[in-house]
Amino acid sequence: MKVCMIGAGYVGLSTATVLAELGHDVTCVDTDTEKVAQLERGRLPFYEPGLDELVARAREQGRMAFTADLRGGLDDASVVMLAVGTPALPDGRCDLSSVWQAVDTLAHTLSHPATVIIKSTVPPGTADRIRRYLAEAGHDENAVHVVANPEFLREGSAVTDTRHPDRIVVGVTSREALAHVRALYRGIEAPYVVTSPTGAEMIKYAANAFLATKISFINEMARICDAYGVTIDDVAEGIGLDSRIGRAFLRAGLGYGGSCLPKDVAALIHAARDKGVEPLLLPAVQQVNVTQPDVYADKLRDALGGLAGKHVAIWGIAFKPDTDDARASQALALIDRLLAAGCTVRAYDPLARCTRPDVAWAADPYQAAGNADALVVATEWEIFRHADWGRVKAVMRGNVVVDGRNCLTPESLQSHGLRYVGVGRP
Ligand code: UDX
Questions:
Q1: pLDDT of 321-350, one tens digit each?
Q2: Which candidate, 325, 304, 7, places its Cα nearest to that of 156?
């Protein structure tokens, strides 16, 4: 099939690459001409393990092209996928301007039958609005289908997640559109959940809100465990082995960040209120997450006997390992707290960057730790988990190591004379 992918971000590029692997001809369109030029030179605009090689292979096989010209990209594509960004507006609502800009161009340009697949995460009701808009612009609903088909891939494992999804969620209004989607994904083994477009959009928000809830739940439990001298890892295992609960997403730490979980919880709260439903649980989930960096700032304050004038090293800026993405990173939220309390901060991350001018940058983890009173591991990169703790102790001025992701082995730090501070880890 000929596929036009609108938006060359994480979701767009990863999906496009896997579709090319499945044998489709994919043209990726992005309004960012610099990004398109970079992609044409074979450079990805972000880091995602393994993706660059797959893009190169798809291009060699002539299955993948890039352009900034949507009209050209549409050409005779039978599938048009929308994977443009839907970031949060300052009030937490979902910014749909890129979606509508693309839909508007589609409305004026599409001149052949096509299935328009909405991959971007959008508030419930958006695909239906797009369908009505295209119909009002004169497109026959039996020729131009609109489908909601949300994406569940994670940064850092985007390719594997796209090749082996847990499920394919399709929101359709016609059997024909469903057949197009099945033909597109032929070769991918996954159960289908077929529902209405609004149902599919709701599933995406519910999935991310539930994941956020699990994390905030375990973080609140970790606070309580701290007070009782109980190990949160045991609690997570003890509840996680209950198949109704499951072990995933029960790792206590600084909390969730990234481009999806925080934004989608906020957008779902707005979606609920728009219909007169006052959510009770979701704001609490947010509240635990927003205050989690405070828990760590307090731990640091206790361990150092005050924060003003202290030198703190931060290992990890990315919102999670194996990505260069620092959007809504809890590491940055903690840095804000520490700077406000009068600390000086020196940071290191293998890929992500902190652009704050008041944060000094180090060339490697040990330089960051040099002369520090305390070290905080804010992202569980492999190199931090297996650091040379003897070397860390030798270069630090103090001996406090705060494990912001409960990812270190306390004994191995203690054996080098370091003081380990985790959460829910007495
Ligand atoms: C998420 C969803 O998992 C994915 O399905 C959706 O498509 C996009 O949003 P992503 O943002 O890439 O994916 O990251 P994810 O792996 O879900 O992690 C989100 C955040 O939660 C990270 O900051 C991570 O450190 C944190 N986290 C995760 C925890 O604090 N504890 C956990 O147990 C798991």
A1: 999 999 999 999 999 999 999 999 999 999
A2: 325
Domain count, the chain: 2
Atom of ligand 1 nearest to the CA of 158: 12
Which among 4, 225, 260, 354 is annotated as catalytic? 260
Task: Give, using CA atoms, the residue closest to atom 27 of ligand 1.
Answer: 256
> pLDDT by residue (tens digit) across 87-99?
999 999 999 999 9
Domain extent, residue 327, equals: 196-426
Query: Quick one: 9 and 156 in the same domain?
Result: yes
Q: What is the pLDDT of residues 190-205, one digit of tens each?
A: 999 999 999 999 999 9
**How many Å apart are CA 359 and CA 414, to the nearest integer?**
28
Domain C-terminal end among 137, 161, 194: 194
Q: How far is 157 from 169, CA to CA, in rounded Å?
A: 19
Answer yes or no: do 32 and 173 share one domain.
yes
Task: Locate the ligand 1 atom nearest the alpha carbon of residue 264 and give its number.
Answer: 9
Q: Contact at 8 Å (CB) between 176 and 145? A: yes
- Regions of the chain where pLDDT drops below 50: none
* CATH number of the domain within which 207 lies: 3.40.50.720
The pLDDT value given to residue 295: 98
Q: Are residues 233 and 88 part of one domain?
A: no
Does residue 225 have an active-site annotation?
A: no
Residues with CB under 6 A from ligand 1: 151-155, 208, 211, 215, 249-251, 253, 255-258, 260-261, 319-320
| Ligand 1 centroid to residue 186 C-alpha, Å | 28
Give the Cα separation of 159 and 18 in Å (integer): 7
Note the pLDDT of residue 421: 97
Ligand 1 pocket test: pick from 215, 216, 332, 384 the residue with the most ligand atoms within 8 Å of its Cβ. Answer: 215
